[in-house]
Write a structure and sequence with these properties.
alpha/beta; Beta Polymerase, domain 2; Rossmann fold; 3 domains; 4-stranded antiparallel beta sheet; 16 helices; 10 strands
């Protein structure tokens, strides 16, 4: 089995690069299907958030997938132009990276819980289109268990500084107090909803929601006892808001400089605060140049967050230690799985010989009592078990070493076992060895 991962995130790429690779939620199923049918890919999954886009695949028999070629083909870019922003991992490193991501150790805000939900959503999409079915399924499922262990055994997520809490702090600095302030949500993104909840909890008065799908705007507004706007009413109404949280996934900017100038004229220069969590961005850079308008995008918020997280390094290191142990356990389990089909074939082969020899000798043995039958069973099974002990022990030991393939081939030749390394057998092996499906 070969696990590979390629991606960009907030550490390796600025927002303008992440915008280029962002995959809208509506297009994610199609993107995953294309990845699944790319040459060499047996299973695949894509995680696309405001801070990262990552592709993970599994191929068979040690073969590698040219994920750079897929990136170039799908995103219609020259991967070499983005090489300094792309990271690529394989095998143990890819597993470790996935565990770190789901445990929120690779997040902009270390310890934030949203990333786990985002990975689970990506996993659900991949399963729904048939792109995650067996060994990658076991790996991703294990990453969720690792994230739970990190959260339970460390304080890395306690009192987490989040994008939402930072947005509240910035709003307080701009307005002095949030009492009576109006909030507008543009788009129905979960991060913007979370930021709105924080703002309301700190004194904001009311909220209204604009979304291209009006029914979604109504549902979200109801959560805050607020009101819904039709998207075409946005520019005529947005100036009522003191704080606008925008996260639409639109391919072009929604708020431009001329909109800001119009808003300021209507508000008689009372300040407005834009929290732009969208990737690609919803606010044009020129908007921030309008007097009285303050725009913070996801990278601006990251800079504020980074100054708050120094005290979490100790807990983060404890989490890293847990992940190191979990990676080793999972790798050993996978290595053992590689020899399970051969062990099963050997057991079936010798059991067939044992049964055939008993049947062949029954005519000479005559009628046996139940005690005699049990004695014959015990004798023949004992012989078979002793014969199997050394090759099975050798296989299990070799599974953790580089010569596993060679040992498997030797034992198959010695016992004349047929090659049955099929995907179905690997799935059965995973099930029989306790790997969660």
């Amino acid at each position: 089995m070969n696990i590979q991962l390629i991606g960009v995130n907030h550490r390796t790429a600025p927002l303008e690069v992440r915008e280029r690779f962002a995959i809208p939620e509506s297009k994610l199923p199609e993107a995953v299907q294309r990845l699944k049918h790319f040459p060499g890919v047996e299973e695949g999954m894509i995680v696309s958030t405001c801070n990262r886009v990552e592709l993970m695949t599994r191929s068979q028999n040690g073969s590698k997938v040219d994920l750079h070629a897929f990136v170039g083909e799908y995103f219609k870019v020259d991967p070499s132009k983005y090489e300094k922003h792309l990271y690529a991992y394989s095998q143990d490193d890819a597993i470790r990276h996935l565990f770190r991501v789901t445990s929120s150790l690779d997040s902009m805000v270390v310890g934030e819980p949203q990333i786990l939900g985002q990975v689970k959503e990506a996993y659900a999409v991949a399963r729904a289109v048939g792109a995650v079915t067996s060994q990658l399924d076991a790996l991703v499922s294990r990453s969720f268990a690792v994230a739970k262990r990190v959260r339970n055994e460390t304080a890395v997520g306690s009192s987490a500084v989040s994008v939402a809490s930072v947005a509240v702090d910035l709003a307080k600095k701009i307005f002095g107090s949030l009492a009576g302030k109006q909030v507008c949500l543009v788009g129905a993104g979960k991060m913007s909803e979370l930021a709105a909840r924080h703002l309301m909890a700190h004194g904001a008065a009311s909220i209204f929601v604009a979304n291209r799908t009006y029914e979604r705007a109504e549902r979200l507004a109801a959560k805050f006892q607020g009101s819904a706007l039709r998207f075409e009413e946005l520019y005529d109404t947005a100036d009522r808001a003191d704080i606008i949280i925008t996260s639409t996934g639109a391919p072009v900017t929604i708020f431009k400089r001329e909109h800001g100038e119009r808003f300021m004229a209507r508000r008689k220069n009372r300040p407005m605060f834009f929290i732009d969590i969208a990737v690609p961005r919803d606010c044009d850079a020129e908007l921030n140049k309008v007097d009285g308008i303050f725009v913070y995008d996801i990278d601006d918020l990251q800079q504020v967050v980074s100054s708050h997280v120094a005290d979490r390094k100790r807990e983060a290191q404890r989490a890293e230690d847990i992940i190191a142990v979990e990676v080793q356990r999972f790798v050993e389990r996978l290595q053992t799985l590689d020899v399970v089909p051969t062990i099963v074939s050997l057991q079936e082969h010798l059991e067939t010989i044992r049964q055939a020899e008993i049947d062949r000798q029954r005519g000479r043995l005559g009628q046996l009592s139940s005690d005699q039958e049990m004695a014959v069973e015990a004798l023949t099974r004992g012989i078979v078990n002793k014969i199997m002990h050394t090759p099975i022990t050798t296989l299990k030991s070799a599974a953790r070493e580089s010569e596993a393939t060679t040992v498997v081939e030797i034992i198959r030749r010695l016992f004349n076992l047929q090659q049955k390394e099929t995907e179905e057998e690997h799935d059965n092996a995973a099930s029989s060895s306790g790997v969660k499906r």
